[in-house]
Amino acid sequence: MAEQETPEKYLKGYAETLTSACATGRKLTRDELDSLRIQGERAAEAGIGLRALVRAHLAAAQTVRRGLAPAGADHLLACVEQAVDAFVEGHERAQRLAVRQEEAARREFVDDLLYGRSDLGRLAERAVRFGLLLSHAHAVAVAQGNAPYDDGHPLTRRVESALVARFGDRRILLTTKDGRLICIAPGDQSDVLGFFAKQAYAATDGGRVAVGRPHPGAGGVVHSYEEALNALDLADRMGLEDPVLHASDLLVYPVLTRDRQAMAELVRSVLGPLKGARGGARPLLDTLIAYFDTGCVAAEAARRLSLSVRALTYRLDRIHKLTGADPGDPIHRYTLQTAVIGARLLDWPNQDL
């Protein structure tokens, strides 16, 4: 039978140290203090709580006191203070080391998981330790704010507390990567990621959250994570204003840019003539963007551009003359709108195609 771990097991030599120090009125020696620190470390590694250990030290000191002369008894409290302080220092040191090791293991796992590194079988085994079952499908949400966040950031702890309070022990992993806040949840629990998106958006004071689609297996986590990152990048390039983006709603954009050369040719062919306008292509391209983003409602597009409806109509007519495509014609409109999407994705005219 294994020996039961008790606080008294880690008081070896403690009573003798107190007795010796009190007999002469001396302070504890460096070797005695080091020994106490080591005992504290071992007690922490054994998982014994500090309260029980301090109580055991005080009880042992009471026993020692009964055998001391009055002068020695007067010195006992100072010796106990030194001894307990050294013991607690060792205990806390072991606790900090354990926390750092746990944080390092968690960070290594997160890096391997989100980069698709490591043996998948081994990765699945490690995932259980952090609350994930990689045999199931998972989806990933990524929140990006105005500042970078790490695992110890107050915002991270605030969002994590909200998730725990709402969903308890569901298999959810909240972490950070490259300054972004990341939530990994089972693919059939969209309420988790929806709640995370709401909390993260509020906590980041107007940041943006992207949610990838659910995918099975360890590789599915990477896939969903990359979809969320691509959605954030797409939002920046397209000027999308939605605070929460779903990769499933943006699938048309990767399709449009899958053949980059063809898209670049479309932009050059359809929108290239706008470069000949006074002031260049940018003002007219912005006009088309506002026009299409408002559902081709001229009054709303004019308001967004701080123009009169007459000025907007003039610009649309100018675009028609330069490109030969009429924004008001349904057939021409589709070609123009596709070319405008391509221009935004390829950063034209800022970038030559």
List keywords for this structure.
353 residues; alpha+beta; Arc Repressor Mutant, subunit A; 6-stranded mixed sheet; 62% helix; elongated; Helix-turn-helix domain-containing protein
Can you put this structure into words, describing what you see?
A hairpin with a 2-residue loop joins strand 2 and strand 3. The protein has 14 helices and 6 strands. The protein has 353 residues and is an alpha+beta fold. Helix 10 crosses helix 14 (330-345), helix 11 crosses helix 12 (298-305) and helix 11 (281-293) crosses helix 14. It has helices spanning 14-24, 30-45, 50-65, 70-115, 120-129, 154-167, 190-203, 217-238, 252-256, 260-271, 281-293, 298-305, 309-323, 330-345, and strands spanning 137-144, 173-177, 180-186, 208-211, 215-216, 244-246. It has 3 domains: 7-99, no CATH class; 138-250, Alpha-Beta Plaits (2-Layer Sandwich), CATH 3.30.70; 256-345, PucR C-terminal helix-turn-helix domain (Arc Repressor Mutant, subunit A). Helices cover 62% and strands 8% of the residues. Strands 1, 2, 3, 4, 5 and 6 form a 6-stranded mixed beta sheet that branches. This is Helix-turn-helix domain-containing protein.
Gist of the model:
This protein has 353 residues and is α+β, with helices and mostly antiparallel strands.
Question: Could you give the topology of this structure?
Answer:
Elements: H1 14-24, H2 30-45, H3 50-65, H4 70-115, H5 120-129, E1 137-144, H6 154-167, E2 173-177, E3 180-186, H7 190-203, E4 208-211, E5 215-216, H8 217-238, E6 244-246, H9 252-256, H10 260-271, H11 281-293, H12 298-305, H13 309-323, H14 330-345
Parallel strand pairs: 4-6
Antiparallel strand pairs: 1-3, 1-4, 1-5, 2-3
Protein name: Helix-turn-helix domain-containing protein
Organism: Streptomyces pratisoli
